[in-house]
Amino acid sequence: MEEKIKELRAAIEQAGAAVTNEAELSAFWQQFLSKNGAVAGLTKSLRDVPKEERPAVGKTINEFKNWAEAQYQALSAQVERAALAARNAAETVDITLPAQKRPNGSLHPITLVKNEIVDVFSGMGFEIYEGPEIEDDDHNFTRLNVPKNHPARDMQDTFYVAEDIVLRTHTSPGQIRVMDSEKPPIKVLVPGRVFRSDSDATHSPMFHQMEGLVVDKGITLCDLQGMLDEFVQALFGEGVKTRLRPSYFPFTEPSVEVDVSCFECGGKGCPLCKHTGWIEVLGGGIVHHNVLANCGIDPKVYSGLAFGIGIERIAMLKYGINNIGLMFENDLRFLKQFED
């Protein structure tokens, strides 16, 4: 037995000297210290030792087993130190090198303008509602006083998902959903993406609108103009005025186009305002009595005002952007101009 232990000790020392990584350490354990390893084999061989010699031999085997396990622990610590040293070497940072700059991000110009508009109208008591982008024909057209075969549908260039399901052409369906769920007085903004089959320097198949709706007793166009005066002065500066021009929208009557006095030339005339002194910014009007009635609101008791703002339109005017496509190209050279 002593000769076996001596040979096994030499084998363990030789194998241990070759261990340099975790895989070799695992193989060392399997060969010598596992349940079926060489050291466990010594214990099994006790059955071949005469009974009177077993206590002494068993003690010798246990002492050798403890020594072998100590060898394994020492090897394990050695491998761990080597792995840590290798990891530290790989992760070494040369503090003499220039720092890697990580530029700060910034909000997109559309988001900046949207937030400004929301801040202005929320200060007037407006709530925010965001409706679905995929709408049924009833909410997108019919209940907004645009029945089937109405010529106003031709103005929309609609994307149809199914026969009566569309990508919403405006955020006005949000008006219907709010009036269905709330009773007057109502004061709500409906921002979101809208979709129309139209594309040029000032139009995009996908763009952003913000619808405003107020329903209460005694609402008039004067309320609309006063509200929009506050809005344009907050966005374009004090002294900017609004002008209402007659127009047509099927869901308002009377309907108006809203112009602002040119904030570039002060109304004197310049290329921005095409030398007229005025710039068209949005449309609005008094909510048509049919729209109120379609939502269960008595038009003889209540009236309302509504307006629709093209967020890209406002951003292009505010920041002097001449092509709407620039806002959807993700060109960092363009977007960096709006960093705080």
Automatic annotation (TrEMBL):
Reaction equations catalysed: tRNA(Phe) + L-phenylalanine + ATP = L-phenylalanyl-tRNA(Phe) + AMP + diphosphate + H(+)
Domain of life: Bacteria
Keywords: Aminoacyl-tRNA synthetase, ATP-binding, Cytoplasm, Ligase, Magnesium, Metal-binding, Nucleotide-binding, Protein biosynthesis
Cofactor field: Mg(2+)
Single Gene Ontology BP annotation: phenylalanyl-tRNA aminoacylation
The EC number(s) this enzyme carries: 6.1.1.20
Gene3D superfamilies documented for this protein: Bira Bifunctional Protein, Domain 2
PROSITE patterns in the record: AA_TRNA_LIGASE_II
TM segment ranges: none
Principal location: cytoplasm
Subcellular location: Cytoplasm
Domain annotation Aminoacyl-transfer RNA synthetases class-II family profile: ranges: 113-337
Any one Gene Ontology molecular-function term assigned to this protein's record: catalytic activity, acting on a protein
Residues reported to bind Mg(2+): E253
Cellular component, GO annotation: cytoplasm
Note on cofactor: Binds 2 magnesium ions per tetramer.
Signal peptide positions (record): none
Enzyme class at the top of the EC tree: ligase
Self-association state and partner proteins as the record states: Tetramer of two alpha and two beta subunits.
UniProt record similarity statement: Belongs to the class-II aminoacyl-tRNA synthetase family. Phe-tRNA synthetase alpha subunit type 1 subfamily.
Name assigned to this protein: Phenylalanine--tRNA ligase alpha subunit
Gene it is expressed from: pheS
